[in-house]
Give the backbone structure.
Amino acid sequence: MKRQHGPRGQWRVLLAEDNDDHALLIETAISRASRLPVEVVRAHNGTEAMELVRSCSPDVILLDLQMPGSSGHEVLEVVKADESLRRIPVAVLTSSDRDADVARSYGLGGNHFITKPANPVELEAKLRSFFKNVEELSSIRRGSGGMDATGASAMGPGSLEVRKALIWVVVIVILIALAAFAHVVGVL
């Protein structure tokens, strides 16, 4: 079932957050950040999030990375691998700011990465920006259907290592070619 963002007058947000205090702050920030009414459905762990994403048909998913059961990355991978779910925009909302977590989140198809700020006003601003981006994406139409709201990258989680290896191979080949050229012209 394809849900319409905005025109029906409300957002359904799946919030996957195991910490009750964080969840309360996030839910408050969500209600203030959205210009539309918001229904928040909460998952307390990754396994519950995977069950709820299928049963509640969320418009967007806010996903913590560090959860009991399945991790946020595992949930993101399942959502973006499923043809019927991949169009749901996913914002990773986590306390981690590690480059590896950011890269993996986008590599798995995450649409937004938000590091949880200590300041609730800053969180509200970040969520407002996310909702605005999702609204803009949902209003774009191509042909008879809507544009995919996924940020799925052509890079899979393992392809970063392959890319690095290929770069090193190219560098080595260039160095060998330069050395051979230098030898031919008599520099070496």
Observations:
- Residues 79 and 85 are 5 Å apart (CA to CA).
- The chain is about 45% helix and 15% strand.
- Helices lie at 20-33, 46-55, 72-81, 99-107, 120-139, 159-184.
- The longest helix spans residues 159-184.
